[in-house]
Write a structure and sequence with these properties.
The chain is α/β, with parallel strands linked by helices and 393 residues long. The protein has eleven helices and 14 strands. The chain starts with 9 loop residues before the first helix and ends with a strand.
């Protein structure tokens, strides 16, 4: 008998599916083709590191549970991770992998036709990384009489408000993030290679804590020296030098849920312009954090930060954060919904989770600080934290 390794109870997944169907009804969609890796996991539990091949979760208004379509090689993994009945897992032959005239999304279209008959309106995630131009061509060709609807981030918006169980998993991810930051800060010293410090970081991220293990996270960013002027560079094999700055952005990972955490480390005596920027950034962070509460908007939080730093003659063009949660390398840990930016009037609700990331980049250096918070009934809860100052060693 196959043993299932479910992270969440079947009832939780069914609740997610029902809320997805409600949004489908609002858009007049009969069947939804979900290909975003995180959305597939969210709806079914499928831990899908097979996102580089065509695969899909099919949600139909008149079917109780979704159908998962994957290549044959992934069957055993699917049987062990999804909440649905095995009859709701459909595999396509391995011959689809080696013959260019065949395509997995053509098989997905055939499953839709067999399972659901005539479809009037078919929803697709046109902007998802797993939905290729070739795949869309196969869908359009198979349903010439149907209305093909780009649903955008339909499932992503369902994901944005977490359940209590999800918040529990993210608290664990936050504890892993804190431990990993401690490990990498300890490892960064003059003469140590950047890649060796990165190895300590990854060891901590995967080992987790004594109570629970970590996962395979999105690649951390940890540039050094003038490379800190860039937002998403990582390590090299060069040794750290005295009087150098390193910025670190990492994510603790638990069951593919991520909690972001960023700090900046200086080896030596930091220059005054760096300490000033750090002080202004932290003052702005507290202003933004105070603005996080139910009923506030993303615009409110962004403006709280900008108002604070502008008093010191500083500004920031990019957003100061975003909704965070489930993530795979195809879309990182960003949920692609709420954005902490001026002009985003998304209203904050309890159990939304936000990565407040304050990257203050200059032409030849930069400063980064971030923490992840959950919106509560009255304000916010920190999911990642630690000493809130420029780390000086």
């Amino acid at each position: 008998m196959t043993v299932r390794d479910l992270v969440f109870e079947p009832g939780e997944h069914r609740s997610r599916v029902e809320r997805t169907k409600q949004r489908m009804q609002q858009q007049g969609i009969d069947v939804l083709v979900v290909v975003d890796a995180a959305n597939m996991t969210y709806l079914t539990g499928y831990d899908n590191w097979s996102y580089y091949w065509p695969q899909a979760v099919l949600v139909a208004l008149d079917a109780a549970d979704p159908v998962l379509v994957v290549r044959h090689t992934e069957l055993q993994g699917a049987l062990r991770s999804v909440y649905m009945d095995p009859a709701d897992i459909v595999v396509y032959p391995e011959s689809y992998i080696v013959q260019p005239e065949l395509h997995g999304m053509k098989f997905v279209a055939e499953v839709i036709q067999q399972r659901y008959g005539k479809v009037r309106a078919l929803g697709v995630e046109l902007d998802a990384a797993g939905y290729t131009a070739r795949g869309h061509h196969e869908i359009v060709a198979a349903f010439p009489d149907a209305r093909i609807v780009d649903v955008g981030q339909l499932v992503n918006w369902v994901r944005t408000v977490k359940s209590p169980a999800e918040i529990g998993v993210m608290r664990q991810a936050g504890a892993i993030a804190n431990a990993a930051m401690d490990a990498v800060v300890t490892a960064i010293s003059p003469g140590v290679r950047e890649c060796d410090a990165a190895a300590e970081l990854h060891r901590a991220l995967i080992a987790g804590t004594e109570a629970f293990g970590g996962g395979t996270p999105i690649r951390p960013s940890m540039p050094t020296g003038d490379r800190t002027a860039a937002s998403h560079l990582s390590w090299t094999d060069r040794p750290y030098e005295p009087e150098s700055l390193t910025t670190i952005e990492l994510g603790g990972c638990r069951h593919q849920y991520h909690v972001g955490l960023s700090r900046s480390v200086y080896l030596g005596t930091p220059p005054e312009q760096l300490t000033q920027l750090a002080d202004v950034t932290h003052e702005g962070y507290y202003a933004a954090l105070d603005a996080v509460r139910p009923g506030a908007t993303c615009d409110d939080v962004a403006n709280a930060y900008l108002t604070s730093i502008r008093r010191h003659g500083m500004d920031k063009a990019s957003r100061i954060g975003y909704a965070i949660g489930l993530g795979y390398p195809t879309s990182a840990w960003i949920e692609q919904t709420a954005s902490l930016a001026c002009g985003d009037f998304t209203v904050l609700e309890p159990n939304m989770t936000l990565h407040i990331i304050l990257g203050m980049w200059r032409e030849s250096w930069g400063y980064v600080f971030s923490e992840t918070v959950a919106v509560t009934d009255t304000g916010s809860e920190l999911l990642s934290t630690g000493p809130r100052e420029l780390v000086v060693k």
